[in-house]
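Archive transcription. Copying these from loose printouts into the bound notebook so they stop getting lost. Printout 1 of 2:
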Amino acid sequence: MNSLPWFPRSTFGLVLAVIYIAVAIFVVADDRSSTTGGWISLHGIPTFLITFPVAFIGEKLGMRPDFRRNADMAFVIGVCAVLVYFIGVGQVKLARILFAGGRDPG
């Protein structure tokens, strides 16, 4: 029984989202623990890059997430994980169309 018939289900998208969450948490934790730096500091850039879609839009709208707050980072990583999930869903759909000879198999 599918309680959400409009929501696409994809194991591939789920795997991509879980991998993204693991990598994003590692990058954010590593970026926060790094205390090195000389005359130039790139502190915060890895975190911005791993959360680029949401961080960039938030920055342009004047609501830039605070990378030091866990709640902001959890929200941004969660939204990016949803985007990665739907990218995975789209990739599976595209592969089905391409390998089905140009017709949508359903």
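Printout 2 of 2:
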Amino acid sequence: MKPITLALDETSINQLKRHMALRLPEMRPAHRTEFAARGLGYRTYASLLAALREGPILIDHMDPENAFAFAERVEYDIDPDDVRAVLFGLSALSVADSTSSRHFGRR
């Protein structure tokens, strides 16, 4: 898959949650948000929210392996290719203005 840059701000969290609910309806809501945060390179959903409280962020590195490991830990059966598809589908959520965003890769 080609590299993407994902721009997020506090208002895009609801869009992220909707995207995850549509793509992973069988996964518990709390697990979906944790799955997404790990796939975006954060240790937890709380750390993603804390970063967003400081302002918009740009994410240029997806971490599907970390998201997959979390899914395994919570005993959610998902194919690694599906993990990548779910995460890269988040690129449609880029709503933050990239000129005022802080840039992040791995956290």
